[in-house]
Design a protein that fits this description.
The protein is α+β, with helices and mostly antiparallel strands and about 200 residues long. It is built from 8 helices and 5 strands. The protein has a 5-stranded mixed β-sheet with strand order 1-2-3-5-4. It is elongated and about 55 Å long.
């Protein structure tokens, strides 16, 4: 079993356990859901229910659940992990996969802004703090980048700052890539494209 399959199995088991807990009426609210998943992950780690290969996944999810509480959205993260590991995510259209990237990045404390044309360029352009993990997209460019079915038809311009390498890893797992624009007048400018063969 590959690492991807092991991670997918972990996520599937956690989601099934949560579904059973909901069915038994033990988990009704987001707070109860977070408590259930945090305890389930802690028990899984302590009892070594899963391969050592996925211990880092469990530890990260557990840390998120403990530090962020309900805001951790553990079921969403587990659902994403399951979809990305089973290949189900790759069957979705380009816009869905990009939206998944943006939502996951926000959960990882990235700042995301959709900018108007006025905020994107010119005198009133929003400036980036290079230290902050941030993603800025142009609203009008986003509208032109996808067809009505959510498939990319034009390049999507983005301004990325902070730990861009982390975001690139997330983009790659979702079938996207970020290419640096080599223009001194456009710092932190990237072109987001669907990876070939996806």
């Amino acid at each position: 079993m590959t690492l991807t399959e092991k991670s997918g199995h972990l996520a599937w088991c956690a989601l099934v356990a949560l579904a059973l807990a909901r069915q038994d009426s033990g988990v009704l609210s987001p707070a109860q859901e977070n408590i259930f998943l945090t305890r389930w992950l802690a028990t899984a780690l302590k009892q070594r229910r899963f391969s050592r290969d996925v211990a880092r996944d469990i530890e990260w999810l557990l840390q998120q659940g403990r530090q962020l509480g309900v805001r951790a959205k553990l079921s969403t993260k587990l659902n994403y992990l399951w979809r990305s590991c089973t290949g189900e995510l790759s069957n979705q259209n380009d816009l869905f996969r990009l939206t998944y990237v943006l939502e996951t990045a926000k959960d990882m404390h990235w700042n995301y802004r959709l900018l108007s044309d006025r905020e994107w360029s010119g005198r009133y352009a929003v400036s980036l703090n290079t230290e902050d993990n941030s993603i800025h997209l142009s609203h009008s460019n986003l509208d032109l980048a996808f067809d009505d079915d959510g498939w990319q038809v034009n390049p999507l311009m983005a301004r990325l700052s902070g730990r861009v390498v982390d975001l690139e890893g997330l983009l790659n797992r979702c079938g996207w890539q970020a290419e640096t624009v080599c223009d001194i007048s456009l710092p932190h400018q990237y072109v987001l494209r669907v990876r070939q063969g996806v």
